[in-house]
Every structure is written in structure tokens, then in C-alpha cells.
Design a protein that fits this description.
The protein folds into 9 domains: about 80 residues, no CATH class; about 70 residues, wza like domain (wza like fold), CATH 3.30.1950.10; about 80 residues, Outer membrane lipoprotein wza fold like (Roll), CATH 3.10.560; about 90 residues, Outer membrane lipoprotein wza fold like (Roll), CATH 3.10.560; about 90 residues, Outer membrane lipoprotein wza fold like; about 100 residues, Outer membrane lipoprotein wza domain like (Outer membrane lipoprotein wza fold like), CATH 3.10.560.10; about 70 residues, Roll (Outer membrane lipoprotein wza fold like), CATH 3.10.560.10; about 70 residues, Outer membrane lipoprotein wza fold like (Roll), CATH 3.10.560.10; and more. It starts with a helix and ends with a helix. Strands 11-10-14-12-13 form a 5-stranded mixed β-sheet, covered by helices on one side. Strands 16-15-19-17-18 form a 5-stranded mixed β-sheet. The protein is an alpha+beta fold. Helix 1 crosses helix 2. About 20% of the residues lie in helices and about 25% in strands.
């Protein structure tokens, strides 16, 4: 019965928490920071299934519950996923709203968040600061977990959350928070003090306490079992001070150590020391932590867990040393007292194989105590690192030193090279007393196409810049001539030539004109004209197949001749599409025209070959369509006749001939009436002939009182149609008559302007008088002056006449 009441009591508490979270903003009642913190703490105790069940029992959907909780500053969705949202995406920390001596960000939440990238790390002298880049990103997976297995010696304290599970004859599970007095409250037995005990000790104590209510716990054999686990570890409050990005108070979980804590808050700035991180507890420095031990993997004996009210202090870095050049990890390092050059090289990952040990250089600022009057404050110091290593010594460094290790020279001397007509050309090691024949044998001897009359040896003199060429007789060398078998020196280069040096490279012929694949073709031995014609795919259909023209150059000529033009007859065999008489072909090939380097072959076009020349006729003919011209002198009248002549509705006078998108003005009626005369027209390929129907109208436009289409009346003249259109307007200027054959005439609007007969389909356009041009300022003044003088002259005339009377 008590167990049932306890479970019901827990359910009522959780329902009250959810009701407070989801409905706390009704009537503008927003949760206070303290209330929000308490709600978050209680929600972390509940499982996602319990939260989801209680939402349904409150009569809400998950979406509505998440929205209501968000209005109160609670990320309910994260709790429903089993995550505890305490970190923000921008900094990895969030304000602590719980009551306590420290108000600050929280570190070490259990929420799985993405990696957070912080600002770019500064450099000094172009070198990165060693170790600080570790703190540039904050992966949440690195943070210590707030739940899970704990050490057997973990001591329970206030704010720890215990999960007490009972099963067997009785089943019960409760999440119990340790209060400030170190107690948990068990509904069946009351408060139990657990602070200061381990998990095993708490379990034994609870078995003893609950045995009064559940005798099966101590029965033999037992019928009821009890298990105690740590559901949530209590947080700890610490201070992180000194050279950090955000100094202040923070809350971390109980498993956090110094490195975790620094990592989550962004770590020290580059002005802060990584070598002497101080952990202060009870006003005493209990540890000086060297983070280089973490970063270099040397040891981890300083992995100290923080306690409540601990202070992590980052002092200013004191000893900054730069190292660059031939080291594996150039950068800016911090050295402790007693650490010198060898330790610096160790931190920098060691020297590269290319390092020049005989000389390293230190750029040093002279320490103030060592400075002398009238001397510069900086100096360069050259050291021999090989001597330091040989003597098992070290070299002291000072704050601000810049150490540079240089590279060995790229130059290699103990080699010789061979190239050309050998099987294995390349670079070979120069051995003592090595001779030319030795090198040829190392290159796996000579190739068959070797040129034996001459080889070349190029040698670099002692000044390392001047080169000389030494020829040798390869044939004599192979026959045992010791004078040709030179002793080789460093960097000698031997070239064995091929017989191709005596040949013209890439010899070719070219073929142009009426062949299927004109272009350049390689010249082969005994290549003939027929051979290149075959390679070019043979003739095109318009080729002149009886003769080829060849342009040939003669490099030995001494006159002004640029090329000799040769002609070669082509065999009839090439006119057939299939070669059947192979004997004839081979016999002809033996006597065929042989080609030379740079011959140019031209296959001309047949001047009598032409493809069909088409014209198109449309409209009112009996057989419209495309027609091929029979000769170059086919006339328009011929084509109209071949198309069956005009239909009864055809209007030949309005026919239109278009050539290259332009109209050719011709009267089709006159061409048909006088064929092959000056009135007719010779056709060209592509001409378009259009014969319309009789329009029976005349179009009147422009400055007439009634423009539009007028019915055609045979015999009427120009002014008849103007009168039928209502006459001219006052602004009429001149008249243009467009005939149906495309021609045009211009007439004045006066009585003597002309009055021709108008044909069917014509267009009459009456233009408008243009407005007068505006007077210029000078012209207006001149007109005024002229008028004044005219008036004065008139007045003087009147006066003179009056006196004579």
C-alpha cells in the first residue's frame, strides 16, 4: 500500500512540474529564473517515456507541449529525446540559474552537440602558437559525462540523484535527490542520511532500513532485491581566472578535471601559460599543471579532478621561444627554466632529414642585464648543432629567441647521366675510376637504331657554370680504342644518338581539292600518288579525275623558283567504286608518280559538274512546286509554262519574284506576252515566284478624306480614285502610285501633276506636307530688323511723295 502511495505521490509531483512548465505563462505569468532552473532539474530526473505519458494525461499533443514549454524558456524537445540542454551552440556554455555561491556558465553537460569552432588563432612572426589550437574547437563528446558508471569510491553528496530500484515480490523505482542536509526521502521509511557514503555503503544502509517494510530483502533465500545506482552526478562550482577568454565562475560536473574545464571554456589565450596552470584549493596552490604533458603525450600524472570552490589560474607566459626552418613542427613554444635547445627541438617534433647540422642560427634580444652601453640590443648567434650532439651538450636559450635551422644544399655531385639510344637511360652513381664504356654497359647497352659515328659527352667545369662538349667515336670505343674510353667526372652527361638524326623528322605530303579527306599525310617509303589518294578517301563526286597537279619544292635550286608545278595522269581504275583487277592496280602502282617530302597535290573540280538548280513557284499556277532549271538561260515565262500556266483566277500583273530576300520588280503579264524579250527575266537558283489571285481592289492611304480599299474599276485613272476617296485634305503634299508589279511613280497634287491609269491591286499614298522648321534665334532677329527697315523705307517714300505734291 505504501509503495502504491509513493508511486502516486511521485506521479502527482511530476504532473505538477509539467503543468507549471506548460501553463505557467497563462495570464502573463512567466517563469522566474529560479523556477525555470528547478523545472529543468526535475525534468532531468524524469525519463522521456514518463514526460511523454504525463503530457498525454494533461490532454496535450507533443507539439503543443513543446511550444508552451518554449514560451517559458524550456527546450522540452531535448528532454523528450533524452538530452539535457545546457550548452548553447555559440559558446558551449550557458548561464547557471540555480541558487548557490557562484552564478556563471555550466560546463560538462550531457547534451550531444556539434563541434563548436571558435575564432582564428593569432600567429607571431608568421608562426603558430603551439598547443593553443587544441582549444579552438569544443566537441561535446570530449566533455566528461554527468551520468553512467562511477568509481566505487565516489562519495555521495548534496544534489546527487540516486535511482533506487526494488524488484521481486514488490516492484518499485524512484529517482531521489540528495538534499542540502545530505538526506534522501523514501516515502515508505522517511529521510535517510547518505552524504559521505559510497554507492555500496548506501545500498547496504537502504537494505537495512527497508527490511522493516520489505522483509524479502533479508529472507533466505531473498524474494525482494534492491539496487542503487547514481542517476545524475552533482555539479561542482569552480573559478577559472587569469589569461582565459572568459574568466569567471563556472559549474562543472564532479568528474571534470583541470583539462576538461579549460577545454570547455575555450582554454588560455596566447598570452597565457600552458606550462604552469595553477590549481588553487583553500588558498593554497595544490598543483602546478604542465599542459605540454597532455599535448605531447609524455605523461598524465597531473590529471587532477576539481573540487568545489577550486580556482584554476592561468598566469602570463614568461619564456617565449620561436623555432622555424627544417623542423617538423615550426611554431612558438614556451620553455620552463632548465629547458634549452634540445627540449625545444623535442617539442617541435624533431629535425627533418634535410636539416644542415653544421649551422643553426639564433636571433636574440640581449637580456637587459647583459646589455652594454653603445652596443646594439640584438645579435645573431651561429651554432654548430652537430658538435652539441656529439658532446652530449645543450645550448641555453633566452626569452624571445628565434631559432632557425637551415636546409642542406639540393646539389648532388656523385652522378653521371646517359640518354639517347640505350635501353635504360637515366642517372647513375659515379664510382671511382668509372669510364665511358662502364656507363654504357650500366645502361643495358645500345639499341639497334644507334648512330655509331659520333656520340657526345657534356662536362661541367670547376667554375660550375661553364660547359664543354667532348665528341667521341662510338664505333672505335666499342672496338677497344682506349683513347675514346674517357674517365668520367661528376655531372657528366653522355648522349648516344639514333640514326634518325640523319633523317628529316615527320616527312609528309598534303592533298587538297576534290577529295573526301583533304589534309596532311605522313610520307612513307616509295609512297605514290595513288597511295595518298586512297588515304584521302578517294574523289568527291565533282572531282576532275583525269589529272592531278603537284607543287614540288627543290631545296637545291639556286634560282628564284618557289615551286615546280608537275602534272600526273590518273588511271581509269580510280573511277570505279570497287577494285577487282588487283594485278592491274599493282602493275600501275609500280610505275605511278612517286611523291617527295612536302609535295602538295591538287585535285581540281570538274567544271561541267553542277548539282540541280531549283526555283520555287507558288500561287495561281496549275502545278505549283519546285522546278529544276534546265539551263543557265531559263526565263520566267518558261517556268510559268512548265508549271501548267496561270489559273483562271491568276493575276499575272501582281506576280512577285523574290531573289536573296529582295523583290525583283517585273511585270509577269508583260513577260508572258513577250517571252525571252527585255520584258522577261532569266531565273537564278533559289528564286521564289508567287502569283496571286485577282484582288479587284485599289488601296488608298494618306491625306485623303476617306482612306481605305476601293473597288477596282477598269480604265479609271489616278484622280478618279482620289475623288472616290473624298478628295485631298488641306495638308496633302504629293502622291505616290505603287503598281502591282512593284514599281512606283510620284506625282504632284496640282492640276499638272499627271493622271495615269491605275491597275488592279495598286496602292495610292498621299503624303502630308511636313511642318515648317523652327526658326533659329539669329534668323528671328534678322527678320525683325528686315521688317523695321522695310517700314522705314515705306515711311520715307510717303514723305517724299507728300513734298512733291
Amino acid at each position: 500500500m505504501k509503495t502504491h502511495l509513493s508511486g502516486k505521490f511521485t506521479f502527482v509531483i511530476h504532473c505538477g512540474i509539467l503543468y507549471f512548465v506548460l501553463f505557467g505563462n497563462i495570464d502573463a505569468q512567466i517563469l522566474t529564473p529560479e523556477q525555470r532552473a528547478e523545472a529543468q532539474r526535475q525534468l532531468q530526473i524524469m525519463s522521456p517515456e514518463e514526460i511523454d505519458r504525463k503530457i498525454r494525461e494533461l490532454g496535450m499533443t507533443r507539439e503543443e507541449a513543446e511550444r508552451r514549454a518554449k514560451e517559458n524558456g524550456i527546450d522540452l524537445e531535448s528532454y523528450l529525446r533524452g538530452q539535457y540542454p545546457t550548452a548553447t551552440a555559440s559558446s558551449g556554455i550557458s548561464p547557471i540559474l540555480e541558487s548557490g555561491p557562484i552564478a556563471g556558465p555550466t560546463v560538462g553537460s550531457t547534451k550531444v552537440i556539434e563541434t563548436i569552432t571558435k575564432k582564428k588563432l593569432p600567429t607571431s612572426r608568421g608562426l603558430p602558437y603551439f598547443g593553443y589550437d587544441v582549444f579552438l574547437t569544443t566537441p561535446a563528446a570530449f566533455e566528461p559525462t554527468a551520468v553512467g558508471p562511477v568509481d566505487p569510491e565516489y562519495i555521495i553528496g548534496p544534489e546527487d540523484v540516486l535511482r533506487v530500484s526494488i524488484w521481486g515480490q514488490v516492484e518499485q523505482q524512484n529517482e531521489l535527490t540528495v538534499d542540502k542536509e545530505g538526506r534522501i526521502f523514501i516515502p515508505t521509511t522517511g529521510p535517510v542520511v547518505v552524504s559521505g557514503l559510497t554507492i555500496d555503503e548506501v545500498q547496504k544502509k537502504l537494505v537495512k532500513q527497508l527490511a522493516r517494510s520489505f522483509q524479502g530483502l533479508v529472507a533466505s533465500p531473498p524474494t525482494v532485491w534492491l539496487d542503487v545506482t547514481l542517476s545524475k552526478i552533482r555539479p561542482k562550482r569552480i573559478f577559472i581566472m587569469g589569461e582565459v577568454e572568459n574568466p569567471g565562475g563556472y559549474t562543472v560536473n564532479s568528474y571534470s578535471n583541470v583539462f576538461n574545464s579549460l577545454f570547455a571554456v575555450g582554454g588560455p589565450t596566447v598570452n597565457g601559460s600552458l606550462r604552469e596552470v595553477r590549481l588553487i584549493r583553500g588558498n593554497k596552490i595544490i598543483a602546478r599543471i604542465d599542459l605540454y604533458l597532455y599535448l605531447t603525450g609524455a605523461e598524465k600524472n597531473n590529471d587532477l579532478r576539481v573540487q568545489n570552490n577550486d580556482i584554476i589560474f592561468i598566469p602570463v607566459r614568461k619564456n617565449t621561444i620561436y623555432i622555424k626552418g627544417e623542423v617538423r613542427r615550426p611554431g612558438v613554444y614556451e620553455l620552463l627554466p632548465g629547458e634549452n635547445l634540445k627540449k625545444l627541438i623535442e617539442y617541435a617534433g624533431g629535425l627533418l632529414p634535410t636539416t644542415y647540422y653544421e649551422r643553426a642560427q639564433i636571433d636574440r634580444i640581449i637580456p637587459p642585464k647583459e646589455r652594454m652601453k653603445n652596443e646594439l640590443e640584438r645579435r645573431y648567434i651561429d651554432i654548430n648543432y652537430r658538435d652539441i650532439v656529439s658532446n652530449n651538450a645543450d645550448y641555453p636559450l633566452a626569452d624571445g629567441d628565434v631559432v632557425t635551422f637551415y636546409s642542406v644544399l639540393d646539389e648532388v655531385k656523385n652522378y653521371v647521366m646517359i640518354s639517347g639510344s640505350v635501353y635504360k637511360p637515366g642517372t647513375y652513381q659515379l664510382t671511382p675510376n668509372m669510364r665511358l664504356l662502364d656507363l654504357i654497359q650500366l645502361a643495358d647497352s645500345l639499341r639497334p637504331e644507334t648512330y655509331y659515328l659520333r656520340g657526345e659527352l657534356t662536362r661541367v667545369l670547376e667554375d660550375n657554370t661553364t660547359q664543354i662538349s667532348i665528341p667521341f667515336d662510338l664505333k672505335s670505343l666499342l672496338e677497344g680504342d682506349k683513347k675514346q674510353n674517357f674517365i668520367l667526372q661528376p655531372k657528366d652527361r653522355v648522349v648516344i644518338h639514333s640514326i634518325n638524326i640523319s633523317k628529316i623528322p615527320d616527312e609528309f605530303v598534303e592533298i587538297f581539292g576534290s577529295v573526301k579527306k583533304p589534309g596532311r599525310y605522313p610520307l612513307t617509303k616509295n609512297m605514290t600518288l595513288v597511295d595518298v589518294l586512297m588515304q584521302a578517301g578517294g574523289f568527291t563526286e565533282n572531282a576532275e579525275r583525269t589529272q592531278a597537279r603537284i607543287a614540288r619544292i627543290d631545296p637545291t635550286t639556286t634560282d628564284d623558283t618557289l615551286a615546280y608545278i608537275l602534272y600526273a595522269d590518273l588511271p581509269d581504275l580510280l573511277d570505279t567504286t570497287t577494285i577487282t583487277d588487283y594485278a592491274f592496280f599493282e602493275n600501275f602502282r609500280k610505275t605511278d608518280f612517286k611523291l617527295q617530302h612536302r609535295d602538295q597535290i591538287f585535285i581540281r573540280s570538274n567544271p561541267n559538274f553542277q548539282i540541280q538548280q531549283l526555283v520555287t513557284v507558288t500561287g495561281e499556277v496549275k502545278y505549283p512546286g519546285q522546278y529544276a532549271l534546265r539551263t543557265y538561260n531559263d526565263y520566267l515565262s518558261d517556268l510559268i509554262k512548265r508549271a501548267g500556266g496561270p489559273t483562271s483566277a491568276a493575276y499575272l500583273r501582281g506576280g512577285k519574284l523574290t531573289r536573296h530576300n529582295e523583290r525583283v520588280n517585273i511585270d509577269f503579264q508583260e513577260a508572258v506576252d513577250a517571252p525571252k524579250s527585255s520584258k522577261d527575266l532569266i531565273l537564278h537558283a533559289g528564286d521564289l515566284i508567287e502569283i496571286p489571285k485577282k484582288p479587284n481592289t485599289v488601296r488608298m492611304t494618306g491625306e485623303v478624306n476617306n482612306p481605305g480599299l476601293l473597288s477596282f474599276s477598269k480604265g479609271d485613272d489616278l484622280w478618279d480614285y482620289i475623288d472616290r476617296a473624298g478628295g485631298l485634305t488641306d495638308s496633302a503634299d504629293y502622291i505616290i502610285l505603287f503598281h502591282p508589279n512593284g514599281n512606283a511613280e510620284q506625282f504632284s497634287a496640282g492640276w499638272f501633276g499627271g493622271n495615269p491609269e491605275v491597275y488592279d491591286g495598286s496602292t495610292i499614298v498621299v503624303t502630308k506636307v511636313p511642318p515648317p522648321l523652327p526658326e533659329k534665334e539669329g534668323e528671328r532677329v534678322g527678320n525683325i530688323v528686315r521688317d523695321i527697315f522695310a517700314i522705314m523705307a515705306s515711311a520715307l517714300t510717303v514723305i517724299v511723295l507728300a513734298r512733291q505734291l
